C-alpha cells in the first residue's frame, strides 16, 4: 500500500544540498517502520538509475567490499555480482539496505562521496547499536553522512492512510492554530480516528492490516508478531563479534526492562523503578539494558526536571526518568486482549492514565521532540513539560474529568516559577481558552509545538 510519509521532504532537502556538500543519506530507525519502502519510492521518483543492495537478503554482496575501497574497483565488483545493473555517472543512486550488516560498505561511503559520480542512501535498523561500537567504528565515514532518524507513522500520516483528505486535516490544524472549536461532527469523527490510532499505532504493516481488514484481532496478531521479532533481535545483536555466543546477562536484563514497561507506566510512582524488576538491582546495573532498548528504537526516556527553568535539557535528572514505547500500538498490544475494544468504546481512562500519557509521548517522539516531566516528593506532579520562545509550558494529559490542581498551583505561583507561562490541557473535549490555560482534544497532540 502506497502510504505517504512526511520524511520525504527531508530526503528532498538532502538531495538539494548535495551540490553544496557531498554526503550520503543514512536512515536510522526501528525495524518495520517503512525505511526500505520509502527510500525505494524516493529513489525511483528522483533518479534515472537505482542500484539496490540488501545486505541481509544478499549476504554474498559483502565480498564486493573486501578489497581496497577504490570506487572503480567497487563498480567492477558490484556489477560483476549483480548482472544487469549499470553505473551511470551523475544519474545513479546506490541504496545500501541494512548497511549495519556490512561495515566495509559503510566505510566505502567516504570514497564514493569524494569521487562524486554517485549518490548513496543507506538504511539500517540497528545502526544505533551495531554502527558505533568498537568493532564497527572504522566503518563510520565521519563527515560524509547526513543522518535522519525515521519513526513510525504519526497520527496525521495515519489519517492520510485512512483516506481522510488533507483539506479536512488542514481545517483541524487551523482550529488549533486559531484556538477555535471544531464542529461537533468533525470533533466526534477525529475522536474516533484517534482512538483507532491509539490501538493500531504507526507501524506500516500494522496500519496496512487495519486499512485492509478493519479487524482489530488481525491488528493485534500483527503487533504481537512484530514484538516477537523485536525480541528475537535482542539476542541476535548482542554479540559484537558475530560469534554464536550471546551476552545472556544483558539479554535477561533487556527482556526484564521491556516486559515491565506496561506495569511501570501504570504505577503511581512517577519514575522507572529497577526495584520492580530486580529487588537487588540498581540503575547502574540496568543502564546498558535500558540504553540498548533506546538505541534500538523501541523505547525512549522522559526525564524528570529538577526545576521548571530554561533550558529544560540543562535541568533534567539523568537518573530519574520514565520509559515510553516509541509507538502507542506497542503498548496496547502488550496489555490485555480486550483493551482495544474498551478504548474504541471510549474508555481511555483504563490503566491509570498510562494510555493517555503514551498517546502524547507517541506524538512528541514522532515529532523528534524530547520528553520531560515534573514530579516532586511533595506530591506535585505534572505529566509533561515543554518550552517555546516565551518560556516553559505545562502539559496535562487527562480524562474528561481529570484534575490539573498541581499544574494550576505552579502556573499561579509566578514568584517561584517565573519561567512558566502557559498550561495546555489535552482531554476528551473540544478547544477552549481561558487566560493562560488552553484546552485541546487529545487528537490534537501531534500539533502541540
Determine the fraction of residues in helical runs and give it as a percent range: 40-55%
Poorly predicted residue ranges = 131-137
**What order do the strands of the largest sheet run in, or round the barrel if closed?**
2-3-4-1-5
Termini Cα gap = 30 Å
Total beta strands: 14
Strand content: 15-25%
Major sheet characteristics: 5 strands, parallel
Describe this structure in words.
By secondary structure, the chain is α/β, with parallel strands linked by helices. Helix content is 41%, strand content 18%. It is built from 16 helices and 14 strands. The strands form three sheets. The protein has a five-stranded parallel beta sheet with strand order 2-3-4-1-5, with helices on both faces. Strands 10-11-12-14-13 form a five-stranded mixed beta sheet. The protein is globular, with a radius of gyration of 23 Å.
